[in-house]
Amino acid sequence: xxxxxxxxxxRHHILAVLxxxxxxxxxxxxGLFSRRGFNIFSLAVSPTxxxxxxxxxxxVDVESTPLEQITKQLNKLINVIKxxxxxxxxxxxxxxxxxxxxxxxxxxxxxxxxxxxxxAKIVDVGWDSMTLMVAGTPEKLDALxxxxxxxxxxxxxxxxxxxxxxxxxxxxxLRSVKKQSA
Length: 182
Hints:
four-stranded antiparallel sheet, Alpha-Beta Plaits, alpha+beta, 23% helix, five-stranded antiparallel sheet, 2 domains
């Protein structure tokens, strides 16, 4: 099943939320979304380089609830340190998918070739199935999933999206400093 995040849709928005790394923070944030009826497309949580903080990447549905309302509610939570709003156009988005596909010896090479087109890695092989891992945009993962479906998907797991702001492409100008003689 496709994630619904792909294509030209801009129904979603990404919130990179820096939170204190304390017990119950995830429960408080997910409880806020549940109580307010906000829809979450995906949620990924990981520690940062500072063990006091974790980063939550929350992909929200902005058609059902205005983004401003979501961020106001999040800012009220004491463990929320900072919220960065990333529009899809201003972010580098990636997701990870692991998929186990029925693959007897007759179709194994076809699945391997298909996986290589999408830069997938084979991470496990059994007698009649194989597991592939691929990272990329949600659209890329949707496409591979759709192409693998006819072979028979035994299991699939997707991480949900993670994102960082796009970097500036503007070149910084350096001033030359004239050497002063003494």
